[in-house]
Amino acid sequence: MSINKNNLELRQDPITKEWVIISPNRSKKHINIQKQKREVDLQNKDPFWDPQKSGNEKPSFIKPNIENWKVQIFPNKYPALKSDIKLTKNQNGPYNTLSAFGFHDLIVTKSQTQNFSELSKEDALLVFQGAKERYKFMQSKKIKYAMMFQNWGPTAGASVPHPHYQIIGLPIIPNSVLNSLNGADKYYKKNHSYGYSDIIKFEKKYKKRILSENEHAISFTRFASKEPFDFRVFPKKQIPEFSRTNDKILEGVVEVLQKSLTMLKKNVKDPDYNFYIHSSPLDKINKYYHWHIDVIPRVTISAGVEYGLGVEITVLDPDESAFIIKND
């Protein structure tokens, strides 16, 4: 299809108030879409084929059972944070530090080749059910914020080709999260309605950016898109915190995520990507927030404007992104 090069404008996210530049006239030069060659380790070199044999710890979650497991969760062997140390705070002149207390889990599926979109719906749901259990556990351990995510492919940060997911639990709430939470608060106080619910209503009426939808969930490319082909998945019900989602709604979210990723793989040549869950903090629920999943395909490279200004230049109109994802 032809790229619309006339829709050059700045757009603002209604919740975070972040600005992006939509600049389709730059697309041919700056989008890199190439079919990825996915590597598969031999079983004896794959650290996740038999995780405990490879030196990983005993799983905190394993389904359906230890002998015939499909999904298991265990601590990252190379963690960014550690749960067996005390949380301490120090100050050195103008600088504040905390000890690296927290959690860093891996969620591993048995298959060496089936990424999330290719998992059975039962196994895909197990991935998210396991994450729910770990969120609840981390909440009981004084963790303030948890995030489940996947790095798929080397340009997205994956160092092991075996499909896997991660959960990080922090003793702090990052500023980027606080910005979203405060934005949801301000939107409600100004408009007397939930910001993300209003976005969903608008997208359902607009239709062009919708990728997939069922009774309980919906996905669409973002109006203020930060990257070509990036999209969000929402439960339709306004639920602030991920782990409080019932299994029926979670099943709907998983179905929409799988369908959207399947289209992305087929029609955008299987790009590397990151996905992550944005949710209300564990220690204090923000009733105006609405948890969701962001999917960010890695098809462009950030440069001076993005790093220097914090303003992303998106070289493909989100309407066009949705059209390409949905069509051969």
UniProtKB/TrEMBL annotation:
Pfam families: GalP_UDP_transf, HIT. Residues 206-298 form the HIT domain. The keyword Nucleotidyltransferase applies. The keyword Oxidoreductase does not apply. GO terms for biological process: galactose metabolic process. GO terms for molecular function: UDP-glucose:hexose-1-phosphate uridylyltransferase activity; zinc ion binding. Residues 9-174 form the Galactose-1-phosphate uridyl transferase N-terminal domain. Keywords: Carbohydrate metabolism, Nucleotidyltransferase, Transferase. The active site is at residue 164. This is Uncharacterized protein. It comes from Candidatus Liptonbacteria bacterium CG11_big_fil_rev_8_21_14_0_20_35_14.
